[in-house]
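Exercise 7.
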Amino acid sequence: MQDATRYRDIDRLAISLQCGFSSAVGSGDAMDVQWRKTEVRCRVADRIWPRPTRPTGAGCSG
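Solution. The predicted structure, written as tokens, is:
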């Protein structure tokens, strides 16, 4: 993200919802893996875009 801000404003960047999700397909604990990946993505988003700057309802906790 830091490198990307050299080209675009941080408010115009995003984290892809599909990053890393194909690796759990077919594994027995795929749902647990998916939730852990989602939690990591949420923590990263919260660090980059603190909640007061995001629209109401956006984010991982609602």
